[in-house]
Amino acid sequence: MEEPDRIAEELEGILPGRVSRDVGPYLKDWWPLTWFSDEPLGSAIAVVKPTNVDQVAALINFASAHGVPLYVHGGGSSVTGASIPTKGIVVDMQGMNQMLDFDETNKTVTVQAGAKLKQVEAKLGEKGMSLFQFPQSLELVTVGGYISTLGTGQYSSLYGGVEDSVLRLEVVLPTGEIVWTRKRGTPRSSVGPDLSRLFLGAEGTFGIITAAELKVHRLPNHEWRAAYTLPNFESGVAAAKLLMELDVKPAVCRLYNEVESAFQFQGDKPFMLLIYHARSSKILEDIQEQVSAQMQGSGAPAGPALVDKWLEKRFNFRDDIETVKKMGYTLETIEVAAKWSRIVEMYADIMVSLSDIKGVAGVGAHLSHIYDQGACLYLTVLFEPNTDIYWSLWEAMAKITATHDATISHHHGVGILKRAYARDEVPMGLLKKLKQALDPKGTLSPDRLP
């Protein structure tokens, strides 16, 4: 690799006004380890801020020719270090933030990858539509970053994760070639494999996503909010499973254990929060009857005010972090997923194992996403800000997820944090073959997934 100053100068000649040497803000994201680690976790030569797909292609061609790696940056909301560069050049996609097309008839929207999800939702809301992809990081995350880390939102039990929203992608390959993963915008096609899937969750290792055509949904005419108090977390898990077997699935189903119930709602027992959507008032009445009957033997109604409170506070993650810091602790969020037959046993294992780690002050948990086959168990761990404690809890989680046939990452992706653990879940030999075929020079994020 050439001298950093020379590379930056040549970049400025190719993309005038789009290059910066101020890389400091890009060496930290929302990964807790960056808050207290004594060692720097990233480095970079420069930041480039393209405004169109041709500039992205020119940048990739430049980097490939000079042997300089590229790391893609979206909104910087990653909690795994996914957006932290470890060398080379940062590609800040936030300048590519336009809505390119909205098709109300066919219920699609096409947006550039650097558009913030919150801004897209606001524009769609004006048209009576929504992606219904609402991650906690809504205000920060970009469309490209959300797709690249295989994100999902709080309404996933009804509307699915990002993989259920993507119709096709515009991608710049490591060769500089610009392609759409489908040349035609149809609702489904069996002409060959769905190449979009190659880039979902790949975190920029196979290509840089520059635009996406996504499915949108009309906003519901009616919404029902309900909350229940459960005698214990285990009975709540059983109730959540049964709710997925009713005719209409909940848009939101969240089950909080005693620790999170106390922190979030000042309660002393587990709470379940439910939101249902319907276009017909009669159907919504039927839903209420079915759910009420189903929950009668599981929990006691607690009133919709708890749901209102959650909706009001659900994006205030900064407040929670500051509260914990004032207590002298920091926090880590861990989102694992397993089949229904393993969730309760895994939950019990986690609560004992993590609580036994010296320096861990508390472990909160809730079911955040539910499916016909299982659920995501989302943990919030309070601990003393110490790197040894931090890695101890992740090593414990790696063992627990292996024991219970679970995944160590339901929707936060891999990043730097989980790349060692990914080897136990994904056939790395196959990923390496794909990487070699698409990016033989290792231009894009060379030290990440494969």
Please render the helix and strand layout as text.
Layout: H1 4-14, E1 19-20, H2 33-36, E2 46-48, H3 53-66, E3 70-73, E4 89-92, E5 99-103, E6 108-112, H4 117-126, E7 129-130, H5 143-148, H6 156-159, E8 166-172, E9 178-180, E10 208-215, E11 217-218, E12 222-229, H7 233-243, E13 252-256, H8 258-265, E14 271-278, H9 281-295, E15 300-301, H10 305-313, H11 317-326, E16 330-339, H12 340-355, E17 360-370, E18 374-383, H13 387-403, H14 419-422, H15 428-438
Parallel strand pairs: 2-4, 3-4
Antiparallel strand pairs: 1-2, 5-6, 6-10, 7-11, 8-9, 8-10, 12-14, 12-15, 13-14, 13-17, 16-18, 17-18
Features:
450 residues, alpha+beta, Uridine Diphospho-n-acetylenolpyruvylglucosamine Reductase, domain 3, Alpha-Beta Plaits, 7-stranded antiparallel beta sheet, 15 helices, 18 strands, globular
Q: Uncertain runs with pLDDT below 50, 5 residues or more?
A: none
Number of helices: 15
Strand order of the largest sheet: 15-12-14-13-17-18-16
Strand percentage lies at 15-25%
Secondary-structure class: alpha+beta
The global form is: globular
Cα gyration radius (Å): 22 Å
Helical fraction equals 25-40%
CATH class of the domain at 95-218: Alpha Beta
Per CATH, the architecture of the domain at 95-218 is 2-Layer Sandwich
Biggest sheet statistics = 7 strands, antiparallel
